[in-house]
Design a protein that fits this description.
single chain, seven-stranded mixed beta sheet
């Protein structure tokens, strides 16, 4: 399941890797864009709804969240993700957080200078036409929300709620969070 699937960019990559994918988004416009993009593909289901309303029945092998966790209440969302995952299932997050410590500011300052350089390397010429661009880039605008928690708060909450979670601060104003649900041990409630 890709939570906050937007127009389906990650859904597409997961599908190309052979996965059966559920794209979930609370925004009706985003869900419609994903549904249209994968119309007729039996391996993709686009669902509109809140992640909190997905049954916590351990039915998903992987849950991904790219820039969507900060749209939810952090601790309940992490607890819910643990319940949605099957034993041995993986939670993979690329998230956004607020600056809360001098180290965070230092990393973001480096990102401020590196971000345009990487952008120029990846896209040396402006994209001129639809045929030259990613179809996901031409869709409706993504819903935006500022992060509430700091990097430190996200890290500590994840470690408390998801024992063994691996949190990494990244360049470009992001962090990654990886967690595998234990195969036999119950999840902390």
């Amino acid at each position: 399941m890709d939570v906050g699937c937007g127009t389906g960019a990650l859904v597409d990559r997961l599908r190309r890797a052979g996965a059966t994918v559920v794209g979930l988004d609370a925004d009706a416009t985003m869900t419609a864009a994903t549904a249209a993009r994968f119309a007729g593909d039996p391996g993709v289901t686009a669902r509109q709804g809140r992640f909190e309303d997905v049954p916590a029945d351990g039915s998903f092998d992987v849950v991904t969240m790219v820039a969507s966790l900060h749209h939810m209440d952090l601790e309940p969302a992490l607890r819910h993700a643990a319940g949605v995952l099957a034993p041995g299932g993986r939670l993979l997050v690329v998230g956004l957080a607020r600056i809360g410590a001098p180290r965070d500011l230092a990393v973001d300052l480096v990102s401020s200078f590196a971000n345009p350089v990487v952008g120029m390397v990846k896209h040396p010429r402006p994209v001129r036409g639809v045929a030259d661009s990613d179809p996901a880039d031409d869709g409706p605008p993504m819903p935006v929300r500022s992060a509430r928690e700091t990097y430190g708060e996200v890290r500590e909450t994840a470690r408390r709620v998801l024992p063994g979670a691996r949190f990494r601060r990244r360049l470009f104003f992001r962090y990654t969070l990886e967690w595998t649900r234990p195969a036999t041990a119950p999840v902390a409630q």
